[in-house]
Amino acid sequence: MPSERTEVQVRPGVESDLDALTDIYNHYVCETPITFDTATFTPVERRPWLLSHPEDGPHRLMVATAGDSQQILGYATSSAFRPKPAYETSVEVTIYLAPDAGGRGVGTLLYKALFAALADEDLHRAYAGIAQPNEASVRLHERFGFRYVGTYREVGRKFGRYWDVAWYEKEL
């Protein structure tokens, strides 16, 4: 019997994924400090975000699905790091997994696919901001060659407290 890891498929995200991607993101909005958004989104509100990640170029959306069911297990993105033109060769990357998809190698598969898709793009660095504490995310990023560059202390307030964000970078 194949393992769950081999049953996972990764592909570019498409508009029909929007409802499931919004549900995954809203879980993190409501239940965790991983995102500093504090209000949930509707799929209509998230549509511009999805459309800002085409199948080519430096800003990508990769989706992991479970075998034949095509249930979305998570997604990874590369997005603009900052809006000013000199930052165009830098991207911010992130992964969000469905609440029951952790510990199955899904994040690893997503990042492998994302970085493979970005390999021929005119990119110099990838950055990841990781709300602390989040040891699983730190380990994942370090496995992909990210190195710690600093922490913004108490930079976001959510759930009645302040949270640190550790920043990591990777050469591309």
Describe the secondary structure blueprint for this structure.
Blueprint: E1 8-12, H1 18-31, H2 43-51, E2 61-66, E3 71-80, E4 90-97, H3 106-118, E5 125-131, H4 135-143, E6 147-158, E7 161-171
Parallel strand pairs: 4-5
Antiparallel strand pairs: 1-2, 2-3, 3-4, 5-7, 6-7
Helix pairs in contact: 1-2
Number of strands: 7
What is the tally of helical segments? 4
Show unreliable segments. Answer: 1-6
Oligomerization:
single chain
The N- to C-terminal Cα distance equals 37 Å
What is the CA-atom radius of gyration, in angstroms? 16 Å
Strand content: 25-35%
Task: Give the fraction of residues assigned to helices.
Answer: 25-40%
Overall 3D shape: globular
- Profile the largest sheet: 7 strands, mixed
Class based on secondary structure composition and strand pairing: alpha+beta
Mean residue pLDDT: 94
Summarize the helix and strand pattern as letters.
Answer: EHHEEEHEHEE
What strand line-up does the widest sheet have? 1-2-3-4-5-7-6
